[in-house]
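ESCALATION

Customer reports they have been waiting on this structure for their group meeting. Please prioritize. Original submission:
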Amino acid sequence: MESNNEEKVQVVTTENEHIEPVKLWTLFKSTFMISAFTVGGGFVLIPLMKAKFVDEYHWISDKDSLNLVAIAQSSPGVVAVNASIILGYRMAGMAGMFTALFATVLPPLIMLTAISYFYEAFASNYYVKMLLKGMQCGVTAVILKVVIDLLVKQFKKKLVLPLLIMIGSFIGAYVFDINIIYIILVDAIVGVVLMQSAKYD
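Update from on-call: job pushed to the front of the queue and completed.
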């Protein structure tokens, strides 16, 4: 009998495409690495998840990865943790969910525990400050790339309304300084209306 680390679980997908069986140890390693390098918020998850789970493992589709992050961001709690729970459960049920959850929580737990013991040294260290500044610049570039990729995909699909929603949301938040909660609520209502109208077309 194979060990738990080598146990294979058949992936349940929503699309008619071949996706490799999931190994819990592979799921643990991949989510651990993504959690360790997710700096800057939920949008940084998109390229990391795409590179690992879409391009390398072929576990989920590109569209599924975007939907997963969207659901994780719209749910209460930490985006990375929410995404790992959804992904793990989809890949391997409850075992996958707990595996991905533990792997996601472990890196920040280790880092914060280490930093708590040497907080004064980290807070006043010039090189640590410069390191964080450099990471901020890198995260900004990654988020900008995600935005550009999303725009390009919408342009290719020639869907005018999603583009208008994106542009309108940006203008509302940046130019008119509208509370982001109101913008999300309006976008959600528009999405529901569009889905309902599409059912009757």
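Sent to customer with the following note: The helical segments are 24-37, 45-56, 62-74, 79-117, 119-124, 126-157, 160-175, 180-199.
Escalation resolved.
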